Amino acid sequence: MVNYINIDDAYINLIRVSAGLLCGTYALYKSSSHIRSVVIKLALFFSMLLIASLISNSNAHFVNILWVWSYIGIALLIYNHSISVDIAKLILIAYTIVFLVGSVFNKVEASELFTTGSANGVSVLFIYAISLYYIIKYQNFKNSNMPYLPILLLAFFSIWAANRSGLLTAVILAFGAFLNNIVFNKSGYNKGKSIIALLLVCVLIFFITDNYLGSYSENMLNKYDRYGNESVRILIWYEYFNACLNNIEYFLFGAPASDTKIIHYHFYNGNTHNAFFMLHAKFGIIGLIFFVYNIFKFILRQIGKGKIYLIVVAAGIITRGMFDWTSFPGLHDIFFWLIIMYNYLGDDAKYKIA
């Protein structure tokens, strides 16, 4: 079967990094001097961390510096309220149409959807679209409810792609959305409606699973034939972690993830299948501590305010990042940079872009 979307990965990356740099330039120009100063210092700081690890272990490339500036630029654009709810909704709809056409109408295998990448990318892209929509919706309507339909679609696409981590993320998002809508939402959202909606989502997920269980089971059996009952991810994490514990340079700057003497599953080309291990591999222990500290700080601040909306979104991003290289650098960097901005610049931009 031919690939459904025949676009070279290099062109996608070029478009993405160019768009990010343009967004960043525009957002910096329109932001206050304080916001501009903080963002530039953050980008410079992480560029230097990346260069340090690059010299030490060759995990990164100088081109990765562009990704740092690109993703922080897009995050700043979101932080400054420059993307409307309608645009975020259109992005979510666009991804939905592409995946629905591939899965339902054309019956394309998830692994064949793109010429590059894997089926895991389906849930990564859709979680990005969901998170973007939820965050921008929250910026415009404080204490807003979290719609269940995007989560249902995520569950469906994850089952289609035989992606367990995507399905787990959908479950966590559904539970978090339910808590937000009936417990923490103070805008008068109908609790009975929320309970009925959640039950409907559960029924539909069961229906989807039942109908796609055959293809899902087949994909799981194929993985079992390749790897047996061992978890390749756990083996990779163990080897990487063990290397860092036994070498002070690796601990400080990251272990060479593509070195087959350290990680034997060399066909992954330096991919540890964990965003936080990739954070350590490319930005060292300082980068890892910085982000982990700020994630906990962000969660505690939101709990202190009696809000969990943004915590639910963050939980989805973090859960998916625990099982794949989604960030550092990656598309989900945008949301981690937003967490940093919320911590150091406040929950809302003081100077919005016109």
TrEMBL record:
Residues spanning the membrane: 12-29, 38-56, 62-80, 87-105, 117-136, 148-175, 195-213, 234-255, 275-296, 308-323, 329-345
Alphabetical keyword list: Membrane, Transmembrane, Transmembrane helix
Keyword Transmembrane helix belongs to the record: yes
Protein name listed in UniProt: Uncharacterized protein
Organism the protein comes from: Bacteroides reticulotermitis JCM 10512
